[in-house]
Amino acid sequence: MFSKVHIFADESGNFDFSRRRGASRYFILTAVAFKECSTINAQLQHLRHQMAWEGIDHPGPFHASHDPGPVRDRVFQIIESHDLYVDALILEKAKALPGIRSTEERFYQYAWYYLMKYVAPRTPAKELLVVSASVGSKKKRRLAFYSGVQDVIRQVGRITCRTACWDAGSDACLQVADYCGWAIQRKWESDDASASHRIATKVRSEFDLWARGTTLYY
Fold first, then answer.
1. How far apart are CA 194 and CA 187, in angstroms?
2. CB crowding 160-176: b at 16 or more within 10 Å, else e
3. Of 206, 32, 44, whose CA–CA distance to 129 is shortest?
4. Does the residue 148 lie in any domain?
5. Is the N-terminal amide bond of 61 cis, ω within 30° of 0?
6. How many domains does the chain have?
7. How far apart are CA 154 and CA 160, in angstroms?
8. Looking at the domain assignment, is residue 218 inside a domain?
9. Residue 217 lies inside a defined structural domain of this protein
10. Is the dihedral of CA 197, 180, 8, 117 positive or negative?
11. Which terminal residue of the chain has fewer beta carbons within 10 Å of its beta carbon, N or C?
12. 95 neighbors 217 (Cβ within 8 angstroms)
């Protein structure tokens, strides 16, 4: 058992519960657990410096959906070299009961609860720091994140947990979570597993919460 483990998480998909153009089929929460964060932070910072020396204009932070292919390849090379593991909660939005998706905050809290219900008991640590990317999130959603995590921790009992919402540009580990979440989202949303293959050995779980459900509510 480790003394401390850091968990950084990011979301993929949106809160548009419709069949309209631009509405994602899935909402995915991806959590990446690190025993040690300083090395990967330093390596990704060094990558930005190195690209600047090479004349590659990358203002940062690293963001998988915006970065060009050659940049993504270099970021994935760094991720592949590290001892980390990935858990993703897959929610097919059309299968969500209307009460669950009555508000963004309710749905977000529900997602965090079920992600951490799987992750927390399986994380060999006495203390957890759980960090969510805060870009674009509203105050009510941040509170829903805190509540969803703490509800699980109270049930687990043996773990001391701290939570935080940070801007993705403030910590490279959140950028790693973005990359891993993007790879998994591409696999589920677009049937494109080319990026998820890069992290396949790091993925501990991809849990489709409503896999057995057959009812679509919209």
1. 8
2. ebebebeebeebbbbbb
3. 32
4. yes
5. yes
6. 1
7. 9
8. no
9. no
10. negative
11. N
12. yes
